[in-house]
Write a structure and sequence with these properties.
A six-stranded mixed β-sheet has the order 2-10-9-4-5-6, with no helix packed on it. Strands 1-3-8-7 form a four-stranded antiparallel β-sheet, with no helix packed on it. It has no helices and ten strands.
Length: 114
């Protein structure tokens, strides 16, 4: 069974930074593409960052140049470094395979506010 545990969220001022972490189990991590998704209040969850099993990355236009996704296959972990945060980045952030499975973790709340 896939288990995904996200951490690292919090309250940060505009322009600040956060680093999210995700620990995955129950999957053969190294052969899967992974993604970070976010869901803002009243909106659908959407993919914001993608990393292939070989390390190729892609980003939604809204976060390009500010967010960096990375992975550590040895520890089955995926990370999201978020810089220059904006209020519109406020959301619950989730990791999952890309494309995603039906097994979502609890997510981690990111709130960008002064």
């Amino acid at each position: 069974q896939v288990q995904l545990v996200e951490s690292g969220g919090g309250l940060v001022q505009p322009g600040g930074s956060l680093r999210l972490s995700c620990a995955a189990s129950g999957i053969i991590f190294g052969v899967n593409s992974m993604g970070w998704y976010r869901q803002a209040p009243g909106k659908q969850r959407k993919l914001v960052a993608f990393i292939s099993r070989s390390g190729v990355t892609n980003y939604a236009d809204s976060v390009k140049g500010r967010f960096t996704i990375s992975r550590d296959n040895a520890t089955a972990s995926v990370y999201l470094q978020m810089n220059s945060l904006k209020p519109e980045d406020t959301a619950v952030y989730y990791c999952n395979k890309a494309p995603p499975t039906d097994s979502w973790g609890q997510g981690t709340q990111v709130t960008v506010s002064s």
